[in-house]
Design a protein that fits this description.
Blueprint lengths: L8 H25 L14 H20 L6 H4 L7 H12 L5 H4 L2 H16 L7 E4 L4 E4 H23 L7 H18 L3 H4 L3 E8 L4 E7 L2 E6 L8 E5 L1 H8 L5 H6 L3 E4 L7 H6 L4
Parallel strand pairs: 3-6
Antiparallel strand pairs: 1-2, 3-4, 4-5, 6-7
């Protein structure tokens, strides 16, 4: 479980693009095969159709960011002022599911296919560290992170739709590894609940089976996540299977189930501190 792979940012970005290119047609087929868009989904309160509308809005938004095509008026979507990350994401989600009415929801597969292909075509050849301004995060992200987020949204919300529709939706370990490697170093720090983390000091060695190894350090309300960090002393080590950790991180699988199956294992000199990580990460 402790083996890690060498990190080449360009090669990993290309593998992420290839994984997204493979997931898009699977997601399109899933959207077209949904038997009842009003069925409950894997997301509380949202129907299968709501989740599909959210995914379509994600593809709309990310294409808008990548091409700077002004397709979305962000000032009309986001809350005024410097709201918290949770407030901004909540506002985005509330707007997203209202963008597509019943007629549009019947054609979400076509929309996702067109936007997904446009994103991959329009970003082909761009460096993974190309900066992209993301209004709802209030900062710039790299194209590599943005591509990883598109992959994670497709995989996780595809599962939400499939659970509600009673259809299969496998997520393979390599897809999960790419999401974790491309997005976690940036997004974990952004999602830190700074109020809960105030006064907390924690150094955690996060090891993904056959994937990235992340040094997660929390120091009095601030977090840094470093990939392939130099050797240092850690409070604990958390060794995880990629798919299980992805689903636990997005609250799609309870942590006890992953632990019981041997897919998440804490070690080191203070292993009990590994449980603090999930408590300190906000889940908008």
């Amino acid at each position: 479980m402790g083996t890690v792979t060498a990190f080449d940012p360009v090669a990993e970005h290309e593998r992420t693009r290839a994984a997204l290119a493979d997931v898009i047609p699977r997601l399109v087929r899933l959207l077209r095969e949904v038997p009842d868009r009003n069925a409950a989904s894997g997301v509380p309160v949202w129907t299968v159709g709501d989740v599909g509308a959210h995914v379509a809005a994600v593809y709309l938004a990310y294409c808008s960011l990548a091409f700077d095509d002004k397709a979305v008026d962000w000032d009309s979507v986001l809350p005024p002022g410097d709201g918290s990350l949770g407030e901004r994401i909540t506002a985005m989600n509330a707007t997203a599911i209202g963008l597509f009415g019943d007629d549009e929801r019947a054609r979400l597969g076509d929309f996702v296919a067109e936007r997904g292909e446009a994103f991959l075509r329009g970003t082909e050849g761009l460096a993974p560290d190309t900066p992209v301004a993301v209004p709802w995060f209030g900062r710039e992200l790299t194209l590599a992170v943005l591509t990883g987020l598109m992959l994670s949204e497709s995989l996780v919300h595809g599962l939400d739709i499939a659970r509600g529709a009673g259809l299969p939706w496998p997520i393979v370990p390599e897809e999960a590894r790419l999401v974790l490697g491309q997005t976690m170093p940036t997004m974990m720090a952004l999602a830190l609940d700074t109020a809960k983390a105030r006064g907390v000091t924690l150094a955690l060695d996060l090891v993904v089976k056959d994937g990235p190894r992340l040094a997660v350090v929390i120091d009095d309300g601030a977090m840094t996540v470093t990939r392939d960090a130099p050797p240092r002393a850690y409070d604990c080590r958390l060794t995880v299977a990629p798919v299980d950790f992805l689903l636990v991180s997005f609250r799609r699988t309870p942590i006890w189930k992953a632990v019981a199956r041997g897919r998440m294992r804490a070690g080191g000199r203070r292993p009990w501190l590994a449980t603090r990580l999930g408590q300190l990460i906000a889940n908008p």
